[in-house]
Amino acid sequence: MGKRFVMGDIHGAFRALKQCLQRSGFDYEKDQLICLGDVCDGWPETRECIDELLKIRHLTFILGNHDAWSLEWMETSNVDATWMKHGGKTTIKSYMDGVPKSHQNFLSRALLYFLMDNKLFVHAGVDADVEIENQGADILLWDRAFQRMAMEHFKIGSTGHLTSFDEVYIGHTPIPFTHPIKAMEVWMMDTGAAWSGMLSMMDIDTKEVFTSDQVESLYPEVEGRQK
Predict the structure, then answer these.
(1) CA distances from 197 to 42, 123, 127, 131, 211 (A)
(2) Residue 13 to residue 218: CA distance in whole angstroms
(3) 212-222 residue pLDDT tens
(4) Tens of pLDDT, residues 99-147
(5) Which string of DSSP letters, residue by residue, matches 120-172?
(6) Does the model's pTM come out above 0.85?
(7) Which of 65, 101, 139, 224 is surrounded by the most beta carbons within 10 Å?
(8) From residue 212, how far is each of 34, 61, 191, 199 by CA, in Å?
(9) Which residue in 224, 183, 182, 219 sits closest to 198, CA to CA?
């Protein structure tokens, strides 16, 4: 095994994904990448993003709420009205030629959370008072209270821990920074790739950060994007 990396929410931004992988010198055969979910929805290249991630030998993919919406559509053809208002149209459009079974399998096999060396990787957040194995998708995919609590501690420079884990890595809630930030043991990795920010990737062991260009600048042809 080579280096170990974690990446925030991609949201269909294939060009940003490629930049991060290239700028980090990522080795598709030796290095490990842990994605915190939401590869789907937002920018127009969800299909290309999943194709690229499928090339990575040591990939751990965490399910995000947008991925869950997309998977439901892939499995049932049902179109969630809320999903359509929050980026679903671009995912459907990226699969105009049909959904490869490998892509549906990719999302269906995604993890709700991942533990490694007492480090927790989860899309949205956790309930610090409940054992992780007893928490459901309503918290792991959707929660924002944990991130808000971590951000409050970041603002006042608190030390200590919110959980029993050495480190917790989350996405889901964009932060107003161009790089990931740490509050106590919590790393917030979503630097706004779905909006006007960029995609971030970090070496888990050295904490070196690799970011894309501002995603809007990578898609100048996209107007009136569904957010």
Answers:
(1) 13, 18, 28, 33, 10
(2) 9
(3) 999 999 999 99
(4) 999 999 999 999 999 999 999 999 999 999 999 999 999 999 999 999 9
(5) EEESS---TTS-GGG--HHHHTT--HHHHHHHHHHHHT--S-SSSSSEEEE-S
(6) yes
(7) 65
(8) 17, 20, 10, 5
(9) 219
